[in-house]
Amino acid sequence: MIRSIAIEGLGKTFVGRKGQAVHALADVDLDIQPGEFVSLLGPSGCGKSTLLKIIAGLTEPSVGTVRIGGTPVSGPSEFASLVFQKATLLRWRTILDNVLLPADLAGGRRAEDVAMADNLLRLVGLDGFARAYPDELSGGMQQRAAIVRALLRRPELLLMDEPFGALDEFTREALNDMVLQLWREEPKTVIFVTHSIAEAVFLSDRIVLMGARPGHIVRSVDVDLPRPRPPDIRTSSHFYELIRSVRETMGNVHADHIV
Q1: DSSP 8-class letter at 215
Q2: pTM
Q3: How many CA atoms lie within 13 A of 161 on its CB side?
Q4: Is 132 exposed, middle or buried (0-12, 13-18, 19+ CB in 10 A)?
Q5: CA 228 → CA 35, 114, 182, distances in Å?
Q6: Cβ atoms 59, 246 nearer than 8 A
Q7: Tens digit of pLDDT for each residue in 110-125?
């Protein structure tokens, strides 16, 4: 079962090194439907990653609540997996052993865990690299392995914190295609942090635009592109019109912060 997500009155304030208050988020209200693919888009420092970590239960809010399926999030969620900006693979473990790390930490890998890892590695084109080590793989291949590791637990909520930001455009687009394929084959709710308007348009059902610190929601934009999305949709006139519309909306609020 995939649960809905309800965020109400969320705010987060950190204490700086000199004791000053740093307001990262304020008055965030957001409802996400089960199985929806939502991208968070906004300028650097607007609290996108902080919001993601609060939803994951890794950071406590200062005020407000996050509910998954009606249950308040009070710690790391058993329903969610998080993919970070860097692959964070352990260099002394093979790719297969990195992928199976969640199973190992949960009490030991089972035959079904290994079978699922092998299947997912095949789906993302890494079946020939299961015995390789991270340093033997490109950045894009390492991120594929990190995504497979996040999917091993069959999470109903996949949180992705700008996972492709450091990759070249062609690798990034290939991994965007891969994420959508995996999402179609095993539906789940995805919340995806990005600075790329084109990436957000290509992937999402809805784009949540955030304003500068303290981070707040400016507007939600529905993406009315067909599913499934073929790669050549990136060259369609409607795709470019959506990019233009989102860019204009962001520019009306903080033109100097568009990335």
Answers
A1: B
A2: 0.90
A3: 20
A4: middle
A5: 14, 29, 12
A6: no
A7: 898 999 999 999 888 8
Between 169 and 225, residue with greater pLDDT: 225
Token duo for residue 214: 């303290």
The answer to whether residues 48 and 215 touch, using CB atoms and an 8 Å cutoff, is: yes
Q: How many Cα atoms occupy the beta-carbon half-sphere of 27 within 13 Å?
A: 7
Rounded CA separation 216/5 (Å)? 17
| Contact present, 201 and 48 (Cβ < 8 Å) | no
Position 254 scores a pLDDT of: 56
- What span, in angstroms and rounded, lies between the C-alpha atoms of 220 and 50? 19
Q: Are 10 and 54 in contact (CB under 8 A)?
A: yes
Instruction: With residue 169 as reference, give the H or E element that holds it.
Output: helix 169-185
Count CB-CB contacts under 10 A for residue 61.
Answer: 21
DSSP-derived letter for residue 4 is: P
Distance (Å, whole) CA 30 – CA 132 = 42
Q: Phi and psi at residue 49, in whole multiples of 5°?
A: -65, -35
Residue 162: count of CB within 10 angstroms of its CB: 20
Detail the DSSP E strand segments found in 42-83: 63-68, 71-72, 80-83
pLDDT of residue 167: 81
